[in-house]
Amino acid sequence: MPLQLIPLDDDRFDEWRLRTRARLIALRQESGILRAGDAIADADAFLEQLLPEGRDSETSSILRIVDGGRDVGTLWMLATGGMLHLVDLAFAVIPDQQLSDDLLDALTTMARSNGVERVSLSLYAPDAAGHAFIDGRGFRCASIRMILEPLPTRESAGRESGAPVLLRPMTEDRFATFAAASEAAFAADLVASGRYSDVD
What does the CA dihedral 103, 98, 134, 196 come to, rounded to 10 degrees? Predict the structure, then answer.
């Protein structure tokens, strides 16, 4: 039996939402993007924004991925502006090449039948199953969510709490140094993420 994408039954929605919430929180925490309560608040806001009416939210589709008669994962997607966006692709196991190929074929067929020209997928660095699905299948990185470290407190920076903070325009010489250092640090972060290799 070929791979099928089957709409999630109404009576499975609450269980799916709980699992997806836990998954989104864990991915945010494991990737280092958000920590503890921030990851929980962000995941809850994300679910509320994209599923305002719960199972009946018109903008979202939640599908079961069924391969050979067994459930192998779920797919939460949105179709907007000529793009099919895979909000969350949750595999029960890391997909092998055949499963990945079959899923991409099913998604491509679905996209084309709905006049969609591009498929995008949100991924976190620790999502091994998601990376196994996209690797070698023509996907390219469109954007990366960067992690910003918290600013130091005035006390840790050696300033008294009442001392003013002065902002001054950056000089051209200082900007050249700043830009080169920022570019090098960003490239190092991309290599460290595992999505790019270090080439000259």
Answer: 180
- Which among 105, 108, 121, 117 is positioned nearest to 81, based on CA atoms? 117
Three-state secondary structure of the chain = CCCEEEECCHHHHHHHHHHHHHHHHHHHHHHCCCCHHHHHHHHHHHHHHHCCCHHHCCCEEEEEEEECCEEEEEEEEEEECCEEEEEEEEECCCCCHHHHHHHHHHHHHHHHHCCCCEEEECCCCCCHHHHHHHCCCCCCCCCCCCCCCCCCCCCCCCCCCCCCCCCCCCCHHHHHHHHHHHHHHHHHHHHHCCCCCCCC
For tokens 């949100």, the residue is: 122
- Per-residue pLDDT tens for 65-122? 999 999 999 999 987 777 889 999 999 989 999 999 999 999 999 888 888 888 889 8
- Which residue type sits at 162? G
What are the structure tokens assigned to 24, written together? 């989104």
Contact 31, 125 (CB under 8 A): yes
pTM of the prediction? 0.71
